[in-house]
Every structure is written in structure tokens, then in C-alpha cells.
């Protein structure tokens, strides 16, 4: 599991109906209700510079931010009563080498301001699953399902959680595309295709909703079915040189930096 991960708290006061990637520079209400994690300076007109100028809820286990001011957002979860929104509890962001056949020496940082919108329906390689977990970043109940279900609120794994994996291969120089996803693709047999030859860290996230009651819940948005409608937006805003540092010290060094981030 070469790489690193960070816990990103919910930016509670920024929950709302706007989307800086799909509807840039458009004030709310537009689109559907989102939960934002990471960059605290997120707004409808966000740029990488504006994200870096604010704070971040992302940090390593020792409390350091590591230079990650990226923004991550997901649809909120409407509970079975049709009235109560779950809200966000935590998002864990994992940056990994990827498949064993991926050549770690070829991995480079995301380009400045990379934007990605990954949907469950894009590919089976998104690996979207719902389960119950804790907040430590390692624990879950092992019961992976297509839709959220009720967790034990008094147990070890009380939080309704979703998992999704982003593509790892990029088109040369591309930071966005019309559909916000075709500029990045998944590797095939651990190899990036010739039209998307740039190898990035494999990013996957786990999104923990602030509820244990997942049965019958629906996502905000046009496709409210959690089995096919879950999606995550990512807006890259790492401080210069920091992602390269972690790629070198964790991924290329063959080290799991989850518990102790490298010094420097």
C-alpha cells in the first residue's frame, strides 16, 4: 500500500447548492446540494490560487496539513424520512501507487489546478461500494453493498460510508475537459494508454456521512439512487512541490506513510 492518506473534515459552513467545476462562477442555488471537504476557501468562483489562500481541513494523523489545500465534494444524503439531510462527517483521501504493474518511477504529481468529476456510472473501475466504518481510516465492517444500509450507532463502525476510485492516467497538459472526466482515464492492465500517457497517483476517497441510518436514503441530485448516482468532484490545490515530495518519499520509496508522514 505504497502512498499516503489524509483525513479531511467537512467544511460545514460551505454546504450548499453550487459546484465550482460543473457551474463555475455561478452563485447558488445551482445544481444540487453538496458537502465540501478540504479547502475552507471553496466558493463558486474558486481557483487554485484562491484555495491555497485559505485554510484546509485535510491533515495527517499527526495534525500537519502536508500542504494539501485541495477541495473534494459529494452529494449530500437525504435520509429515509425524506426531510433530514445526513451532512458530512469526514472524507479520507488516499494517494497510492495503484496496481502492482504500475511503474512507480513514472508517477508524477497532478498538474496545477486539475479538476475531475468521477461518477459511479463511468466505469466499473470506480469500485463504488457502501459500507459502515469508523473515523480512523482503516476500519470498516467488511459488508460492501451497492446501496447504503443501517449501521450500528453504538458499534465500532457507526458511519454510513461510500468508496470511489479516480482515474490514474492523464492526457498531456490537460487539467479539465468538457465533461470534466475524459481528460483522465483508468489504466488497462496497469498501463496508461498512448492517448493518456501521464501516470498520476491513484486517488481514491472514502466519504463518511454523519449518520448511521443508511437504509432507504437517497442522494441529492438528478440521479438519487446511491447504487448508480454517487459521484465526487476533485479540485487540486497542493502547495508547490509537496505532492512531488510525498510521491518521492512514500510511493517511489515503497513506504506506507499513513501513520507517520515523512519529515521534510
Can you characterise this structure?
This protein is mainly beta. It has one domain. Helices cover about 5% and strands about 25% of the residues. The protein has 2 helices and 15 strands. Strands 3-1-6-13-9-8 form a 6-stranded antiparallel sheet. Strands 2-4-15-7 form a 4-stranded antiparallel sheet, with no helix packed on it. The protein has a 3-stranded antiparallel sheet with strand order 11-10-12, with no helix packed on it. The longest helix is centred in the C-terminal third of the chain and has 10 residues, at about 240-250. The protein is globular, with a radius of gyration of 17 Å. It starts with a strand and ends in a 13-residue tail after the last helix. The model has no long low-confidence stretch (mean pLDDT about 90).
Question: What sequence of helices (H) and strands (E) makes up the elements?
Answer: EEHEEEEEEEEEEEEEH
Net shape: globular
Summed up, the helix count is 2
Oligomer: single chain
Task: Give a quick summary of the entry.
It contains 2 helices and 15 strands. It has 264 residues and is mainly beta.
Topology (SSEs and partners):
Elements: E1 3-9, E2 34-38, H1 48-52, E3 58-59, E4 71-75, E5 77-78, E6 88-96, E7 115-119, E8 129-133, E9 159-165, E10 169-170, E11 184-185, E12 198-199, E13 202-209, E14 218-219, E15 231-235, H2 242-251
What characteristics describe this protein?
4-stranded antiparallel sheet, 15 strands, 2 helices, 6-stranded antiparallel sheet, single chain, 26% strand, mainly beta, 264 residues
Amino acid at each position: 500500500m505504497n502512498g499516503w492518506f489524509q483525513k479531511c473534515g467537512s467544511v460545514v459552513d460551505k454546504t450548499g447548492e453550487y459546484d465550482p467545476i460543473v457551474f463555475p462562477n455561478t452563485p447558488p442555488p445551482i445544481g444540487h446540494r453538496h458537502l465540501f471537504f478540504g479547502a475552507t476557501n471553496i466558493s463558486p468562483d474558486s481557483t487554485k490560487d484562491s484555495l491555497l489562500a485559505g485554510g484546509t481541513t485535510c491533515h495527517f494523523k499527526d495534525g500537519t496539513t502536508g500542504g494539501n489545500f485541495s477541495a473534494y465534494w459529494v452529494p449530500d444524503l437525504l435520509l429515509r424520512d425524506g426531510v433530514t439531510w445526513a451532512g458530512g462527517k469526514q472524507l479520507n483521501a488516499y494517494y497510492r501507487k495503484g496496481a502492482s504493474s504500475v511503474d512507480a518511477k513514472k508517477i508524477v504529481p497532478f498538474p496545477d489546478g486539475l479538476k475531475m468529476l468521477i461518477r459511479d456510472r463511468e466505469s466499473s473501475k470506480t469500485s463504488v461500494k457502501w459500507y459502515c466504518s469508523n473515523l480512523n481510516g482503516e476500519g470498516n465492517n467488511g459488508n460492501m453493498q451497492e446501496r447504503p444500509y443501517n449501521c450500528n450507532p453504538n458499534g465500532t463502525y457507526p458511519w454510513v460510508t461510500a468508496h470511489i476510485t479516480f482515474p490514474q492516467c492523464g492526457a498531456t497538459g490537460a487539467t479539465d475537459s468538457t465533461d470534466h472526466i475524459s481528460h483522465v482515464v483508468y489504466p488497462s492492465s496497469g498501463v496508461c494508454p498512448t492517448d493518456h500517457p501521464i501516470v498520476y497517483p491513484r486517488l481514491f476517497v472514502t466519504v463518511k456521512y454523519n449518520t448511521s441510518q443508511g437504509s432507504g436514503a437517497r442522494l441529492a441530485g438528478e440521479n438519487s439512487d446511491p447504487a448508480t448516482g454517487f459521484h465526487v468532484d476533485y479540485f487540486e490545490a497542493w502547495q508547490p512541490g509537496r505532492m512531488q515530495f510525498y510521491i518521492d518519499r512514500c510511493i517511489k520509496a515503497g513506504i506506507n506513510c499513513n501513520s507517520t508522514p515523512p519529515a521534510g
